[in-house]
Amino acid sequence: MAVGIFQLQKLLPAFVQFYPISTLKPDMSKDEGKTFVINNSLMTLTNIVYSGIDINEISHIDKSKSICTVDFYLWFRFQSDFDVRSLVFMNAVKPIELGKPILEESDKGIMTQTYHIKADFRFDSYLQKYPFDHRSVSVAFRHTDKTRNSLIFIPDTLGLPRSGSNTDKRLSVNGWNIKHSNCYQKIATVITNGQPSEYSQFIASARVERKGMGFAVKTLFPFFSIPILLFLVYGIPADRIKDRMLICIAGIISCGIFHAMIWSDFRLLPYTVAIEYVCFVIYGLSAAGGLISSAAYILRGSANKCRLLNLGGKMIHSLAIILIGIFIGILYHGH
């Protein structure tokens, strides 16, 4: 039995709900006196707490540890007693204790409390599309004692000062853009003494993407220039084996340096970043160039055979570039 109130042409849950339950659980003993039988159905009294998070700043992004600093305002709107000291922030690096609210007001029995928090939180990175990668920065909390039968957090859509495109325009991180942010509630299952208990978990998340194309161009430039340089190998006469081999070796070394720089940041990832496949192709093209150059040098007395070897090398090089281009395009676009 859901109870709601129309407010500003929106149907919102009332501050008190009746939540259907099948049997009384041990973790409900503390809520004695809040269980009723309505129409032969066992129900418990559930309090609704409207919550909201307004992010001011995201800073000190540590990509190696997946930690960043989030500065935000947190507020609650509730009718019954609500103890904020019993909240636990799920992805906070250190426990957060809410002190006195910076703003507290009461209107017709509805209490509103606002807090200012600046702390470090863990974030999720999605690096498969590096350097077009993004981060998902979130703040998540739940009550430590009251299960979902007793307490449910609801996003306070009426109280959010920023929403939709306004958030995207007003918030930015150094070198990054906040493309999307939202607040929502989900169920968190916690196992206590072998028994699962469900809690209402409130989450505010923001998708952070790199700003502009400068970083991507700077990162991708070597991986475009090296294959072009390797292609020029097949235009060098077969008897200039030193020049050919020097270019092939330089291709391997240069790609290895850039690959090591990328790998140092992503070595702990359980998957391969898309740009690493380009590195593997460059290694293969460098090795193929070296082998074909060696064969052409051996057969340098036969112009036709050298021409066929160079033509085969160009075809292999071009086909590899086309195939890796298609493969990377599929990875980046997710088709």
Overall description:
With 335 residues, this protein is of the alpha+beta class. It has 2 domains: 207 residues, Distorted Sandwich (Acetylcholine Binding Protein, Chain: A); 120 residues, Methane Monooxygenase Hydroxylase, Chain G, domain 1. It is built from 5 helices and 15 strands. Strand 4 and strand 5 form a beta hairpin. Helix 2 packs antiparallel against helix 3. The radius of gyration is 30 Å and the shape is elongated. The two termini are 43 Å apart.
Topology:
Layout: E1 4-7, E2 10-13, E3 16-20, E4 35-38, E5 41-62, E6 67-78, E7 87-89, E8 103-107, E9 110-122, E10 124-126, E11 134-143, E12 151-155, H1 165-170, E13 172-173, E14 176-192, E15 195-210, H2 214-231, H3 241-266, H4 274-298, H5 303-333
Parallel strand pairs: 5-12
Antiparallel strand pairs: 1-2, 3-5, 4-5, 5-6, 6-9, 7-11, 8-9, 10-11, 11-15, 13-14, 14-15
Helix pairs in contact: 2-3, 2-4, 3-4, 4-5
Approximate helicity band: 25-40%
Strand residue percentage: 35-45%
CATH architecture of the largest domain: Distorted Sandwich
Main sheet specs: 7 strands, mixed
Tally of helical segments: 5
User: Class by helix and strand content?
Assistant: alpha+beta
Question: Over the alpha carbons, how many angstroms does the gyration radius reach?
Answer: 30 Å
Mean pLDDT: 82
CATH superfamily heading of the largest domain: Neurotransmitter-gated ion-channel ligand-binding domain
* Backbone shape: elongated
The sequence of SSEs as H and E is EEEEEEEEEEEEHEEEHHHH
What kind of oligomer do you see? single chain
Q: Would you give the CATH topology of the largest domain? A: Acetylcholine Binding Protein, Chain: A
Poorly predicted parts: 162-170
CATH class label of the largest domain: Mainly Beta
How many β strands by DSSP?
15
Calculate the terminal CA-CA distance, rounded to whole Å.
43 Å
As for the number of domains, it is 2
